[in-house]
Amino acid sequence: MRHVSYAQALEAAVFEEMQRDSKVYYMGEDVGVFGGAISKMYSLFQTFPERVMDMPLDEKGFTGIAVGMAWMGLRPIVEFMYPDFLVLAMNEVAHGACKEYWLSNQKVPVPMVIRSAQGIGSQCGAHHSECIEGWMMNYPGLKIAVPTFPEDAYGMMKYAIRDNDPVLWLDCRTTIYTEEADIPEKEKDALIPFGKARVRREGTDVTIVAWHKLLKDALAAADDLEKQGISCEIIDPRTLIPFDIETVLASVRKTGHLVIAHEANVRGGFGAEIAAQVTEREAGALKAPIVRVGTPNTYIPVGMVEWQIVPDKMDVIRAIKKTLGRDLLEEEKGQVEVDGVAELKKSRPKNDEA
After folding, report:
1. Is 17 one of the catalytic residues?
2. Which domains does the chain possess?
3. Catalytic site residue 59?
4. DSSP bridge pairs for 258
5. For 170-208, what is each residue's pLDDT tens digit?
6. Rounded to whole angstroms, what are the CA distances from 266 to 109, 158, 168, 269, 297?
7. What positions does the domain Transketolase-like pyrimidine-binding occupy (predicted)?
8. Which one of the listed residues 128, 212, 257, 262 is annotated catalytic?
9. How far apart are the first and last CA of the chain?
10. Choice among 11, 17, 29, 59 that is catalytic
């Protein structure tokens, strides 16, 4: 086993796939000598300079190039500095990548990976902090991966590169360098198929479905609530499309309570889709209404105040106690202070506003 960070796990996966298959290319802005804007993959350009392609600041153009490469049988990985900029290439993604495989009766596969890191962490404000799974989930043919931990990133990236469907790969900006884990040495142990959720923590009182930053917050919340006698089961979906609803339903049948937490805006977020599926199939198992946690319907400000806008561990705790009908402790009613900005969350928009 190799002990690596999330960034190193991804670099290892892409490197090994480029080594295994000469049809794999890596392309985007500053991905050559600079190593990429998201995480530094220096080994790719050093070893495969002819297949690591630095692109101009033209997301529409280089995404179109990647779609054409995929149509011709190559397997490009396209890096976007920030997922916000995917709007500049929506025609190429929606019409060129997502629809072609279906419209050709699966005769023209489009094996490409579109990679970016979403959410807060850059302190760069509204144009560099979007969480976009809610935008992209309505394009049939597009798979969406949301790994949080290194061991998943390694095996899932290998699977994504070999998939014949286009894959939207979303890293969490706040965990790229902070998470570490062991990854396999041998190829046969590596691949992790899409559509398989992982139960990160078993529990009996409430089911929590979360990914990226909110998965980390949920795990921390579960540790705190265990001291109060509340047992949380936490599910990491790992992919949103395909989504492993069966694992969620099995947990809800056991706990009778469901909280869904993500960093994306609550309105139109993927949490609403999960809630709808659970309600349609297992409404009778629910002992209380489903509670969703997400960013209010506003934009992310510049600087450290970004941490005051998005939900955190305390928001997850409050949601859990709401669905369980439990009273908040005094310290759970307060606000987490970052750089002296304790009042901002009190005045931020509610989820049903804006």
Report:
1. no
2. 2-189 (3.40.50.970), 198-327+337-347 (3.40.50.920)
3. yes
4. 207
5. 999 998 888 999 998 867 668 999 999 999 999 999 999
6. 33, 31, 20, 5, 7
7. 4-178
8. 128
9. 49
10. 59
